[in-house]
TrEMBL record:
The lineage of its organism: Eukaryota, Metazoa, Ecdysozoa, Arthropoda, Hexapoda. Keywords: Membrane, Metal-binding, Mitochondrion, Mitochondrion outer membrane, Transferase, Transmembrane, Transmembrane helix, Ubl conjugation pathway, Zinc, Zinc-finger. Its EC number is 2.3.2.27. It catalyses: S-ubiquitinyl-[E2 ubiquitin-conjugating enzyme]-L-cysteine + [acceptor protein]-L-lysine = [E2 ubiquitin-conjugating enzyme]-L-cysteine + N(6)-ubiquitinyl-[acceptor protein]-L-lysine. Residues 292-328 form the RING-type domain. Residues 263-275 have a biased composition (Basic and acidic residues). Pfam families: GIDE, zf-C3HC4_3. This is RING-type E3 ubiquitin transferase. The chain crosses the membrane at residues 230-249.
Amino acid sequence: MDILNESVALGVDLLIFGLCVREYVHNRRVVGLLKTAPHYSIDGDLKGIVERRQAEGLPVYAEIRGTVTPRGVPLRSALAPGVSGVLQILKLQEHRVARGFTGFWMEHRKLLFRSANEMPFELRSQQHGVEIVDALGAAVLDVDVVYDHYKLSTPSFHDLILGFFTGIRQRGLQTTEEVLRDGSSLTAIGRLQLVGGSLRMQPSPEAGLFLTTATKSGLIQRFEAAKWPMILKIALCGAVSGFLIGLLAKKLYRKKRQQKEEARIHSRLERERRERRARSRPAAPLSDDQLCVVCATNPKEIILLPCGHVCLCEDCSPRIAATCPVCRGKIVSKAAAFIA
Ligand SMILES: [Zn+2]
Ligand SMILES: [Zn+2]
């Protein structure tokens, strides 16, 4: 079909548009929640506040800041000696250049290995603490890179030949280790809960959990800055959608107009044929059994097969397609009948 390409393009564009809008709405919701999240200091009062809000059935989405304190022996860094923390992420990435479909070589990174490890920890301020639950699942997790090593690969002749045919060449391997150090100051924004007399913070279903060494305003700024590329993408996708809808509407309108014109020509030709037939019919009056059984005006002119009944005129014939009006037999074909 001639509108298939435009329809597929419009479908894909609307899908991307929908995803961009969803991303933007999520970004705005997160910014709204971050802005309205009150700051509570970790002290004796916090339990009381959370207890009262919980008793009223209200979730407590708040910001707290404290010192990362492990509950037990802290994790030792695997690659950086002397560094310990409560959460570590090890990554091995391959840097590669791949020939894209345009023929250019583009640099890519491929994650070959990732290992994450965490232990129970809390944010403390003096004598009080709040346990952080599911830190690895945080929407934002700012941790220190304590080890970063890049090893450039030296390709052999065989690798070069292989790379030429597969379109992928390895540049090097990067090993990194990220650690959330114990003793560092951390801002956490999430849902506070009082469970069994102790406070804990976990991801909220609306926005998740945010753990950053920066401040809340810094975090909001980061989300605000991310909104502009989204708006640009939405505007671009919207413009493309508008253009494609316009193109489709134009094509459909033209097609409809063409069909109308064809129908008009067809009916004019049919009318002319009828008039010609009427002129060529015998002028003498016909007896009843010589007249078409449908219109009872024109002579019988068509033979129905296989039953063989001659009972229709040429004008009525197109309207009778399934069964013979005389014997109800199935019509397989029709032919002009010449009665001499
Ligand atoms: Zn007729
Ligand atoms: Zn028949």
